Amino acid sequence: MPVLLTEGASFIYLPVSKRIEGLVMNILISGASVAGPVLAYWLRRYGFSPVVVERAPLLRAGTGGHAVDLFEPAVRIAEYMGIHSEVEAMHTRTSALTLERPGRGPVHVDFSRFATHDSGDDHIEIIRGELARILHEATRDDVEYLFGDTITGISEDSGGVDVTFARNKPRRFDLVVGADGLHSGVRGLVFGPESGYRNFLGGYLSAFTVPGHGMPEGRMSVYHAVDKLVATYPVWQTGEARAVFLFRRREELAYDHRDTARQVELLREVFAGEGSQVPRLLAEAAGADDFYLDSISQILMDTWSKGRVTLVGDAGYSPGPAVGGGTTVAMVGAYLLAANLAKARGDHTVAFARYEKDMSDYVATTRTVGPKVMKTIVPRSRFEAALTATVLRWLPRVPKPLLRMALNSPNRPSRSLAGIRISPPEPVPG
């Protein structure tokens, strides 16, 4: 089955059933979450030999991590990979919301009424760990994975890249790709310190698993106060629930990214005194084995390729977790990078330039979405909190044409990504 992707007004036809004759390139990918496995899948199909190295000792698979959104381009890519039905089957099933705020009664909204009035784009919400599991299963039989290891050194010459690891023996590769997230080790080794590229958007995200306590399937519970938001939603696969904390902060917090105990303490300090379910959730945080806390930040780079090394996903152009459609952008970036390497028959100087050109407009657009979403996702005042509750209360009465206009807002990640045209497969021209 060929892959067709648009490049301006022209088309690139790449038959995945026919590997590029005589092409054997060893490509090291750092990161086994989303972008890494997607890239490995397509590279392998095109005849390359990818190796994926991952810091975690085991795959971060299953129901761990917070929910992520796959917008239309990512859904198309999942179809081409033959995993769409499994991804869709694992969607979160969230269709209703209960909003609480201090001193006020709850507001209940059933979103299933509005599902057909979204932007028209396909959309799947899935737990990140489930997506990682599906992607790993699609690649594990013909892609080499090195779990529990990290890259410690990258040395490039005219013929390749010598890589040293924390645990494994040094190896030589033709190319290296950093798909290792916001705090990319590859980016640090090749492009310099993170501080030169990270743009703090004024907020933090925390997520972890908690007991479900009989939460009704499909209903998300949200508590919000000024500069704070807490959401819980059931994980139907296990009967547990996921807790998500968002909060604003003018200045960045000082803590070690590996010091989970300190991160839990910071979260408790920020949300001390809040009501509803918050005290119970905070009590569960210390015992959660998947506790996560990080800044909501972007990665801003003028170029994310240097020599035989390039970056994909959050490592090179993170739009900001929870605010910018980063999972979709990562999948598209991996897809386009692999396709351009195949089209250029492994010539990285040509492929990397085309890859950056293909992604530049989309990356620029998603950079504008994160700051806009940060202004609205967490209320900045009591007035904004009250306004959100009022809008939700009146939402079922909004005329459908007006609702459709609101859902088509260019500020929504789904609309900002609508310009990424991943075309369906076409026959290879003779």
From TrEMBL:
Q: Which GO terms describe its molecular function?
A: FAD binding
Q: Which InterPro entries has this protein been placed in?
A: FAD-bd, FAD/NAD-bd_sf, FAD_aromatic-hydroxylase
Please give the Pfam families that the UniProt record associates with this protein. Answer: FAD_binding_3
Q: Name the Gene3D superfamilies on file.
A: D-Amino Acid Oxidase, subunit A, domain 2, FAD/NAD(P)-binding domain
Per the record, the domain of life is Bacteria
Coiled-coil ranges (or none)? none
Protein's UniProt name: 2-polyprenyl-6-methoxyphenol hydroxylase
Q: What is the lineage of its organism?
A: Bacteria, Bacillati, Actinomycetota, Actinomycetes, Pseudonocardiales
